[in-house]
Fold D-2-hydroxyacid dehydrogenase.
Amino acid sequence: MKIFAYGIRDDEEPSLRNWKKANPDVEVDHTDQTLTPATAKLAAGSDGIVTLQTTPYDRESLQILNDEGIKNISIRNVGYDNFNFDDLADFDMKLTNVPVYSPNAIAEHAVLMIGRLLRRIPEVDVKFDNGDFTWAPTVGKEYREQTVGVIGTGHIGRVAIQMLQGMGSKVIAYDVFHNEDIEKQGLYVDSLEELYKEADVITLHVPLTSDNAYMIDEKAISQMKDGVYIINCARGELISTDALIAGLDSGKIAGAGLDVLDHENNVFGKKWGSIDNLPDPKIKNLAERINVIMTPHNAFYTETAIRNMIEISFNSNKDLIEGKIPDTLVYSKK
Ligand code: COI
């Protein structure tokens, strides 16, 4: 049995070595490159591939894998919105993800972003760099004075809720699928409009689907409280960047914490030397603002997460190759 892995980073190598040691019956080969039409043939002779990338998995790459007889794909991350399921169906491919590698990694990142915005840390940092050690005017706000609206009560949203409650925030939540525990706590509001109306801070923890793309648009923002903070550690396409910029310009939105951005692949994952050199004018606009905290889709990036991403994805791929149906299966034609 052979598995070929794409996009393997140096920080994943130790976990990959451990997996190989525990699975001597599996031959594993890998590249640091992502899956593209130019690299797809590298997997020739393999029974499955393990991969991770934020760019689309294009049909041409899948076609090449299919021509090589490769039908088993395992991603090392949660979100599979960069796959077109029609392509997977046409090629009769199976896909697994890693639904729970570390909800804490992302939830912590979101909660830290909230704290940094509430305590105006970017402004304080600039003052510090200029030798300004005074208090005013950077007075902060406390978590316990905030109503935080958590949109999405899956694994990540629920950990974020626990953390926020630990900090003393009042939490309200919205999800089309209700979780029993969150229901018991009485945290659900009936509609997004209600959440928008009541929340001082809104944090997004939903997957991207065809139904919720650009859900945070001009209309949604107009329904929010004046001075709202918006946090997005989920998917960039959940927020209309134009609407966000307009909301920040008008002061309707007091600040934003963004680990993901619409069109983030234009800028993330590369070294630009300076924000001045960012080629995407909208992303540059956001990056230049003192009340916007931006991180390059690295909320997931912890040692725990990396370990689990490797182990669970490779186990899943091995299961697929052996004809088993792992509980990480997200697509199979039959
Ligand atoms: C995910 O797990 O879906 C993420 O957003 C993390 C990233 C490595 C793609």
